[in-house]
Amino acid sequence: MCTLGELIGFGGLPVLGAAIFLLLSAGMDSTNQAILLYAVAVLGGLGEGTVLALFQLRVLIRTLPGLNPRHWIFATAVAAAIAWAVGMLAPTLDEVIGISPGIQIAIWIPASLLILLSIGVAQAWVIRRLVNNPVSWVIGNSLAWLAGLPWTFALPALLPDGAPIAWWVTTFVVAGILMGLSVGLVTGVFLMRLRVIQQVSNRPLVQNN
Q: What is the Cα gyration radius of the chain?
């Protein structure tokens, strides 16, 4: 379920976002296109986080009866939007106002940490009273993003300068699907680990039916 949620969130929503971007950006200059793409990406992050949370809940609601679905969805959606906002910040600023490589690096260092930790920390906060190892969920999410994010850098780097916008959109969709598969597989393993740990604990917090 986690993998499917990531595939839809990272693969399906980018298609919708790309369609919206192409529709609204026609005739815009590059600066306005960059701003529009930033807004679409952040809103897409909200959708991605919502989809991911909904699919994760299909598993968690059975193993963590005390979990508040609204809190889980809200935390995941906001965290995903923040991750996209900080991830898109440097390239957007570079396109809009032009920034030096040094400033881009200065932005990317904290941005990378926020991207790696955002969803894991937000979700761990929601389940902190329901499991005895919430930190492992933060670690699992960080490892998942480390496995998934390289797709979004490696594939676009293969495109030649001046490639048509359709090539860029297609590349990001493919990268999104591969990232979703990677992230979903890793986080799915850690979701099951949370469940197993509670089942074998000497003082289990999760009641099994």
A: 18
For residue 156, give the amino acid letter: P
**Closest by CA position to 119, among listed 51, 205, 195, 20:** 51
Closest CA to 118 of 92, 87, 147: 87
Banded pLDDT at 31 (limits 50, 70, 90): confident
Contact 114, 82 (CB under 8 A): yes
| DSSP result, 37-58 | HHHHHHHHHHHHHHHHHHHHHH
Segment (H or E) for 105: helix 101-127
The DSSP string of 124-173 is HHHHTTT-S-HHHHHHHHHHHHHHHTHHHHHHHHTSPTT--HHHHHHHHH
**Residue whose tokens read 């998942």:** 144
Within 10 angstroms of residue 202's Cβ, the number of other Cβ atoms is 4
- How many C-beta neighbours within 10 Å does residue 162 have? 6
Cα(7)–Cα(15) distance, rounded to whole angstroms? 12
Domain ranges of the chain: 2-200
Q: Give yes or no for a contact between 79 and 87, defined as CB atoms under 8 angstroms apart.
A: no
User: Which residues does 46 contact at the CB level (< 8 Å), separation at least 6?
Assistant: 77, 78, 80, 81
For the ranges 53-57, 91-95, 155-159, the lowest mean pLDDT is seen at: 155-159
pLDDT-derived band at 26, boundaries 50, 70, 90: low
